C-alpha cells in the first residue's frame, strides 16, 4: 500500500530544498538571501509565495534591453564621451581631481558622463516646483517627455493634463510614462482624454493579474520631465496636491521635498533615460536625433558640473548605491543625508559607520512623522549602530520629509528619486543627479540645516535605554527589512 502521507512529506521537503537552493543561487545579497530562507523555513507556503512574487533577481534576467543606438554608433559615442570626460577632468581638475573616482565609476556605465556648462536651480517643495514646470511646459516648441511614479488627477494633476492636451493640439509631440502601480488614481477617462487629444501615454510596467506581485514589486520610481532640447527636471516630487503646502488648508500634512531644474548638457542623460524607458513601454523605436540631443556646448554663466546616474533591475550593478557609497567614502569633513525611507542594507550602513568613526561629521535626517508606521519602525531598527558610531540622527517633526539628498564637504550635492533603502537600490528604476559645485552644495547645505530647525536630535543614551519591548520589536522588524 502506498504511503501517500510519506510521499507528500518527501515531495514537500524536496520543494523546500529546491527553493532554498534557488534563493542562494539567485540572490546576490547574503542578508536578503538569509531573510528569504528564514521566511521559507518558518512559514513555508507563504514564504515560497512571497519569494517568487518579490524575490526574483531581475538584475540577472534583464527586464528589457537598454539599447537606443546601433552597436557602431554606440561604440563611437562611448569613445567620444570618454574623450570629452577626460578633457573635462583636466580642464576642471581643481574641482574634480579628488572626485575622479566617483566620476569614473558613474561614467563607466551607459551614457552618464560628467558634463559642464549646466545651469541648475534648486526647487524646494511642490509650491516652488510646479509653477516652474508649468512655465517650461507652456513654452515647449518641439516635444514634452514626462515620466512619473505617482501622477494623481487632482488639482495640479489636472492642470498639467490640460496643459499637455493643449500642447498636443498645438502640434507639440507629448509622450507620457506613468507607473501603473504608483499612479492607480489615474483613471481610464483621463488617459482616454489625453490620447484623443494626441498625447501618447503608456504605463511603464502594466499590472496584470497573472503576474500581479512582480508587476507591483518592480516600479518605475523616476520623476523626469524633459522639454525640447533645453530643460530637464529631476527629484523627489511626484504630481500630487499633497506636495503643495498651501497655508489656507489647515490640518494638511506639510510635505518637505526637493527637486532640480537642469539646463545644459546633463539634460542629454535624462533624455536618454526617458527614451529607453519609452521604447520599452510603448513598444516603439524612438530614435535619437538632433531635436532630442541638440548641441549644448556653449558657455553658461556660473555653469555647473553635473552627472546623472540611473539604475534599476535593467542595470548590471546597483550603480546608484555604489555612487552613494563612493561619495561618502570620499568625504573629508562632512556628510549630510536626508532620506524618508532609511533601510540601507549592510554595504551603505557600513560605509556611513566607517565615515563617522573616521572623524567625519555625519548627520542623518529622517521622518518623525511618516506615511508608514512599519517603515518608520524599519528605519529605527538601524539607528543603534549608527548612534554608537557617532552619527547624529534627527527626526523631522514639522511634517513628512520626502527629500532624497546628500551633501558632501560643501562640494557635492546629490538630489534624485532614490531612497536610502534596498528597494531603491535593487528593485526600483531610479535616477539621481550629482552636482560637483560648491555653490549648489552650499545652498543645499543651508536647506539641510534649516530643516534641522524643525527636527529633534535623537539622544544616543536615551535611545539605548528605550523599553525592552520597543528594542525587541525593532529587531524583529529588522529581520524582515531586507524584504521591504
Tell me the number of helical segments per DSSP (H or I, 4 or more residues long). 20
- By helix and strand content, what is the structural category? alpha/beta
If strands are numbered along the chain, what order do they take across the biggest sheet?
A: 4-3-2-5-6-8-1-9-18-16-15-10-12-13-19
The H-level CATH homologous superfamily of the largest domain, spelled out, is: Endonuclease Chain A
Question: Would you give the CATH topology of the largest domain?
Answer: Endonuclease, Chain A
What's the total number of strands? 19
| Number of separate structural domains | 3
Distance between the termini: 47 Å
CATH class of the largest domain: Alpha Beta
Strand residue content: 15-25%
CATH architecture annotation of the largest domain: 2-Layer Sandwich
Uncertain spans, ≥5 residues at pLDDT below 50? none
**Over the alpha carbons, how many angstroms does the gyration radius reach?**
23 Å
Give the structure's gist in a few sentences.
This protein has 484 residues and is α/β, with parallel strands linked by helices. It is 46% helix and 19% strand.
Structure description:
The structure is a single chain. This protein is of the alpha/beta class and 484 residues long. The protein folds into 3 domains: 4-56; 118-303, Endonuclease, Chain A, CATH 3.30.870.10; 319-483, Endonuclease Chain A (Endonuclease, Chain A, 2-Layer Sandwich). Helices cover 46% and strands 19% of the residues. It is globular and about 70 Å long. It starts with a helix and ends with a helix.
Amino acid at each position: 500500500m502506498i504511503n501517500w502521507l510519506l510521499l507528500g512529506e518527501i515531495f514537500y521537503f524536496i520543494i523546500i530544498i529546491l527553493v532554498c537552493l534557488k534563493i542562494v543561487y539567485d540572490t546576490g545579497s547574503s542578508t536578503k538571501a538569509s531573510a528569504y530562507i528564514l521566511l521559507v523555513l518558518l512559514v513555508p507556503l507563504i514564504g515560497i509565495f512571497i519569494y517568487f512574487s518579490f524575490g526574483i533577481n531581475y538584475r540577472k534576467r534583464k527586464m528589457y534591453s537598454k539599447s537606443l543606438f546601433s552597436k557602431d554608433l554606440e561604440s563611437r559615442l562611448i569613445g567620444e564621451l570618454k574623450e570629452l570626460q577626460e578633457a573635462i577632468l583636466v580642464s576642471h581638475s581643481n574641482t574634480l581631481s579628488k572626485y575622479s573616482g566617483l566620476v569614473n565609476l558613474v561614467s563607466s556605465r551607459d551614457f552618464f558622463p560628467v558634463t559642464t556648462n549646466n545651469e541648475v536651480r534648486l526647487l524646494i517643495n511642490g509650491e516652488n516646483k510646479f509653477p516652474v514646470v508649468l512655465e517650461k511646459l507652456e513654452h515647449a516648441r518641439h516635444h514634452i517627455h514626462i515620466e512619473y511614479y505617482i501622477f494623481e488627477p487632482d488639482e495640479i494633476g489636472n492642470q498639467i493634463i490640460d496643459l499637455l492636451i493643449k500642447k498636443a493640439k498645438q502640434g507639440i509631440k507629448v509622450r507620457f510614462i506613468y507607473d501603473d502601480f504608483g499612479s492607480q488614481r489615474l483613471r481610464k477617462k483621463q488617459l482616454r482624454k489625453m490620447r484623443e487629444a494626441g498625447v501618447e501615454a503608456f504605463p511603464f510596467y502594466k499590472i496584470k493579474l497573472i503576474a500581479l506581485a512582480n508587476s507591483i514589486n518592480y516600479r518605475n520610481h523616476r520623476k523626469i520631465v524633459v522639454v525640447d532640447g533645453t530643460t530637464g527636471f529631476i527629484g523627489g516630487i511626484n504630481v500630487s496636491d499633497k506636495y503643495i503646502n498651501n497655508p489656507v488648508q489647515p490640518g494638511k500634512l506639510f510635505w518637505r521635498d526637493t527637486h532640480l531644474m537642469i539646463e545644459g548638457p546633463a539634460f542629454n542623460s535624462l533624455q536618454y533615460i526617458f527614451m529607453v524607458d519609452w521604447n520599452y513601454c510603448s513598444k516603439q523605436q524612438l530614435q535619437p536625433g538632433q531635436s532630442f540631443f541638440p548641441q549644448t556646448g556653449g558657455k553658461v554663466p556660473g555653469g555647473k558640473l553635473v552627472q546623472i546616474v540611473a539604475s534599476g533591475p535593467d542595470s548590471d550593478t546597483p550603480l546608484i548605491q555604489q555612487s552613494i557609497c563612493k561619495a561618502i567614502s570620499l568625504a573629508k569633513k562632512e556628510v549630510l543625508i536626508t532620506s524618508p525611507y532609511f533601510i540601507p542594507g549592510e554595504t551603505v550602513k557600513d560605509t556611513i559607520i566607517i565615515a563617522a568613526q573616521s572623524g567625519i561629521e555625519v548627520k542623518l535626517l529622517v521622518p518623525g512623522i511618516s506615511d508608514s508606521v512599519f517603515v518608520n519602525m524599519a528605519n529605527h531598527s538601524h539607528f543603534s549602530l549608527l548612534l554608537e558610531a557617532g552619527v547624529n540622527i534627527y527626526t523631522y517633526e514639522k511634517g513628512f520629509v520626502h527629500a532624497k539628498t546628500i551633501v558632501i564637504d560643501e562640494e557635492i550635492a546629490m538630489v534624485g528619486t532614490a531612497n536610502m533603502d534596498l528597494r531603491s537600490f535593487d528593485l526600483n528604476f531610479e535616477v539621481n543627479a550629482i552636482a560637483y559645485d560648491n555653490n549648489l552644495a552650499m545652498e543645499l547645505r543651508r536647506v539641510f540645516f534649516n530643516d534641522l530647525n524643525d527636527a529633534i536630535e535623537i539622544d544616543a543614551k536615551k535611545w539605548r535605554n528605550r523599553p525592552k519591548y520597543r528594542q525587541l520589536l525593532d529587531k524583529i522588524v529588522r529581520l524582515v527589512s531586507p524584504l521591504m
